Amino acid sequence: MEKSLYSREFLLSRPLLQAIDNQEDQIPVLLIDEIDRADEEFESFLLELLSDFQITIPEIGTIASQEPPIVVITSKMGDQSFEKERNSIDMVESLSGLT
Predict the structure, then answer these.
(1) What are the residues facing 99 on neighbouring strands?
(2) Which residues pair with 32 in a beta bridge?
(3) Core-most of 58, 63, 67, 78, by most CB within 10 Å?
(4) 25-51 tens-digit pLDDT
(5) pLDDT of residue 5 exceeding 80
(6) Is 56 helix (H, G, I), strand (E, B) or coil?
(7) Is the four-CA dihedral 71, 64, 19, 6 of positive or negative sign?
(8) What DSSP designation does 59 have?
């Protein structure tokens, strides 16, 4: 019998898929670090996961999480704003020391 290369047997499970395909009685926890650096393909993949708690793989089908995952997302976008504010505060403090 011929086996399809596009089956679960040959699927390489990456961390996102491993987390939602967890068969244990544990709630999956996902840490998505620096989301602002993600490409569009990953963003659409992540949107499906976050909205439906499932991932669709065209050749295999839909893999759904037994429990909604706990998701922690980090970004460096706010770092630039924080740095600008800190520099502004430092400038005001140094100017007020001159008067």
Answers:
(1) none
(2) 73
(3) 63
(4) 778 788 888 888 888 888 887 888 888
(5) no
(6) strand
(7) negative
(8) T
Domain boundaries, given as residue ranges, for the chain: 11-98
Mean pLDDT for the chain overall:
75
Alpha-carbon distance of 39 to 62, in angstroms, equals 22
> Which tokens belong to 4?
């399809």
Name the phi and psi angles at 13, rounded to 5.
Answer: -80, 120
Both tokens assigned to 13:
């499970």
CB 65 within 8 A of CB 51: no
**Residue 1: pLDDT above 60?**
no
Residue 63's pLDDT is 83
Report the percent of the chain where pLDDT is more than 70.
72
What is the C-alpha separation between 16 and 49, in angstroms, rounded?
A: 9
List alpha helices for 1-99, DSSP H. Answer: 15-20, 40-52, 77-98
Q: Which amino acid is at 87?
A: N
